């Protein structure tokens, strides 16, 4: 792909990115499914929510782009997973919540952060980058809190609350694994191509711009009162 076509593709992706963010919202169909589907429905909705969670997946893609070995990928993904499990389960069970748009705005910043770091932003500013494993764990907690705000928007009823939370969390993990398989495959394949450095730079610039757009979009929605 020529630089001009690549720029056009990035522009189109950014132009329609708010539509992807909207697809991540909780739908009335999800509410109906959880009311009538039992515990299995929570697994299904959790998996679907992660597979359409473009903010979560963009951050994970940014993490994988920075890593090379499978061992490192498994280590960092495990830390991220532990982090989001803690807040997803803990915050939901304790009833701790916040405005979902503000939480999603912070998640947008995490996408921006990862792209910025991958592009050597800290080195260009001549400052030391924070410990990556620590930051991935921290962002895992934030992403989990975002998932918790979504789950708490459902009517969980008065029975089997913990079981419902755990089933939703299980679904999230299933969705994450299903999403990571093609992401890891594509990035691994791309590394073997001679134009990978250009691809790496373009994708991480997209992460930076998408993170900014997600952040601004969620703040605009929040301040508009919707």
Number of helices: 11
Whole-number count of domains: 1
Query: Could you name the ranges where pLDDT drops below 50 across 5 or more consecutive residues?
Result: 14-23
Overall pLDDT metric: 85
Cα shape = globular
Number of DSSP strand runs: 0
Distance between the termini: 40 Å
Task: Summarize the main sheet.
Answer: none
Could you explain the architecture of this structure?
The protein is an all-alpha fold and 226 residues long. The chain has one domain. The chain is 81% helix and 0% strand. The protein is built from 11 helices and no strands. The protein is globular and about 55 Å long.
Notable features of this structure?
226 residues, mainly alpha, 11 helices
Helix-strand layout with pairing:
Layout: H1 3-15, H2 17-23, H3 28-36, H4 39-51, H5 54-66, H6 70-94, H7 100-118, H8 121-124, H9 132-151, H10 161-191, H11 196-224
Helix pairs in contact: 1-11, 3-4, 4-10, 5-7, 5-10, 5-11, 6-9, 6-10, 7-9, 7-11
Short structural description:
This protein is mainly alpha-helical and 226 residues long. The chain has 11 helices and no strands.
């Amino acid at each position: 792909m020529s630089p001009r076509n690549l720029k056009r593709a990035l522009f189109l992706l950014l132009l329609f990115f708010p539509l992807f963010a909207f697809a991540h919202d909780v739908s009335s169909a999800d509410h109906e499914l959880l009311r009538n589907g039992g515990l299995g429905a929570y697994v299904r909705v959790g998996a679907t929510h992660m597979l359409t969670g473009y903010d979560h997946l963009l951050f994970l893609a940014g993490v994988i782009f920075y890593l090379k070995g499978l061992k490192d990928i498994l280590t960092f993904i495990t830390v991220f997973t532990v982090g989001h499990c803690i807040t997803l389960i803990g915050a939901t069970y304790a009833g701790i919540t916040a405005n979902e748009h503000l939480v999603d705005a912070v998640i947008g910043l995490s996408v921006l952060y990862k792209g910025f770091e991958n592009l050597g932003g800290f080195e260009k500013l001549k400052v030391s980058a924070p410990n990556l494993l620590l930051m991935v764990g921290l962002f895992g907690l934030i992403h989990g809190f975002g998932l918790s705000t979504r789950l708490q928007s459902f009517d969980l009823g008065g029975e089997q609350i913990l079981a419902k939370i755990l089933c939703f969390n299980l679904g999230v993990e299933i969705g994450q694994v299903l999403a990571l398989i093609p992401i890891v495959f594509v990035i691994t394949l791309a590394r073997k191509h001679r134009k990978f450095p250009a691809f790496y730079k373009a994708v991480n610039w997209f992460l930076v711009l998408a993170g900014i757009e997600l952040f601004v979009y969620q703040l605009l929605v929040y301040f508009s009162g919707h």
